[in-house]
Design a protein that fits this description.
transmembrane; MFS_trans_sf; MFS; Growth Hormone, Chain: A; mainly alpha; 0% strand; 455 residues; transmembrane helix; disordered N terminus; membrane
């Protein structure tokens, strides 16, 4: 698909950028800070996603239904994760963001370890809620810090690099979770996953720089006052592009979180014998093998897709800003048929490789969308904008996706008479069609994105 090169319209005058007002920060430090934030976000997703490979073991030991698995991973987690994101973002607009991030890491890591001590569904849900409360303090202040460190023309790449934490954390969660569960059980996997975060929390709190401490006096005064929440909402209410991107990304997250929540269960139920044989060929047990396979294949594709999406968006976006939404639309269109084919394929090995393509395609939106959001608003509204788009994405995607798929799986298995294996397969195929709505919304956002950029 070829885009005509259209001259950019004049961009509205922006408020002075925080980056412009900083005393010089070395390139080496910026790289260090971004690397550390990638580690932080990787731990965020490791602790969030490790439950995916452990779900079937937890279900068997605690005698749960699929809807309970979906609720534990989705709705119960998302309600607190999303609702607390905005007040934490408001605090981060004025407060010390490194300290907020460090406190958040310590909180979610501790609650991850408590998941391993749970003996029933209620205890496990409460521990997962604790994880969600901690993780609410990660991305909004991190997005804002990265935007303050980075000029506009490089923000998609910088936020894409930060977003590498999603596939890296998912890779580690699936791989380590499966191996540790085979060796010592699912409880040990939670305990080991949470431990490193305590150390990283201290490193983040004491070594990340708060850019506001280096602002010029006039900008410091304006930043300290900051816009009210209603000012921020009013600013965003005029940005049609923001809402179109937010809901497009939400539908992607709806399908993605749902699929990730049940992908381990899908293989254990539909490819049981083949999975056991493949694991034996490598001298492993099924959970360890599947976790490692899903982690390596999916994680590698996700890392490449995230990096490539950010790099391509920055490069093409210099010619035409519409590529920031055109590219995710194209990538999502490619993902849909490969996902359905992978879920339908009778071979588990073939399914693993076919599902690599949608994993790659469905991570290409992180950099261009998160980067565009940071450029659609004034610098002092960036943290709130990040929190609001994350609120929308996670309440719809994380809250709704796994919960809906769990309910649909139970419905197809019982009322539909398909059984637990084919019922889950059918539910995953039906759920994939939500991606068509995402494609349409991304293309709709092409109409307004160029005119609405301000910083």
């Amino acid at each position: 698909m070829t885009e005509a090169i259209v001259p950019e319209p004049p961009v509205a005058a922006a408020s002075p950028s925080v980056t412009d007002a900083l005393h010089p920060i070395s390139t080496a430090y910026r790289r260090y800070a971004l690397t550390l934030l990638v580690v932080v976000y990787s731990l965020n997703f490791l602790d969030r996603q490790i439950v995916n490979i452990l779900a079937e073991s937890i279900k068997e030991e605690l005698h749960l239904q699929d809807w309970q698995i979906g609720m534990m991973q989705g709705l119960a987690f998302a309600i607190f994760y999303t609702t607390l994101g905005i007040p934490i973002a408001r605090l981060a607009e004025r407060g010390n963001r490194p300290w907020i991030i460090g406190t958040a890491i310590a909180a979610w890591s501790g609650f991850t370890m408590l998941c391993g001590l749970s003996t029933n569904f209620i205890q496990l849900v409460l521990a997962r809620i604790g994880v969600s409360i901690g993780e609410a303090g990660c991305s909004p202040p991190s997005h804002s810090l990265i935007a303050d460190y980075t000029p506009r023309e490089k923000r998609s790449s910088a936020l894409a690099i930060y977003s590498l934490g999603t596939p890296i954390g998912s890779l580690l969660g699936m791989a380590l979770g499966g191996v540790i569960a085979d060796l010592w059980g699912w409880r040990a996997a939670f305990l080991i996953a949470g431990a490193p975060g305590i150390v990283v929390a201290l490193i983040a709190a004491f070594t990340l720089i708060e850019p506001r401490n280096r602002l010029k006096a006039d900008l410091a005064a304006r930043q300290a006052a900051g816009p009210s929440i209603m000012d921020a909402v009013r600013e965003l209410s005029t940005k049609k592009t923001f809402w179109l991107m937010a809901f497009a990304a939400s539908l992607l997250a709806f399908q993605g979180y749902a699929s990730n929540a049940f992908i381990g269960s899908f293989y254990f139920r539909n490819h049981t014998a083949e999975l056991a044989g493949l694991a034996a060929d490598f001298g492993m047990k099924p959970k360890g093998f599947l976790g490692l396979a899903l982690g390596l294949i999916g994680g590698t594709a996700g890392v490449f897709g995230t990096w490539f999406g950010g790099m391509l968006a920055d490069r093409l976006g210099r010619r035409d800003l519409r590529w920031h939404v055109t590219m995710p639309a194209i990538a999502t269109s490619i993902a849909i048929p490969f996902y359905i084919l992978g879920i339908m394929h009778p071979s588990g090995t073939a399914a693993l490789f076919l599902l690599t393509i949608p994993t790659l395609c469905n991570t290409m939106w992180y950099g261009p969308i998160y980067g565009s959001v940071q450029s659609l608003v004034k610098p002092e509204t960036r943290t709130t904008a990040a929190a609001l788009i994350l609120f929308i994405i996670n309440i719809i995607g994380l809250g709704g996706g796994p919960t809906f798929l769990g309910w649909l799986s139970d419905f197809m298995a019982k009322t539909g008479g398909l059984g637990v294996a084919e019922g889950l397969r059918a539910a995953m195929i039906i759920n994939a069609f939500t991606l068509l709505g995402s494609v349409g919304l991304f293309l709709w956002a092409r109409r307004t994105i160029r005119e609405e950029m301000v910083s």
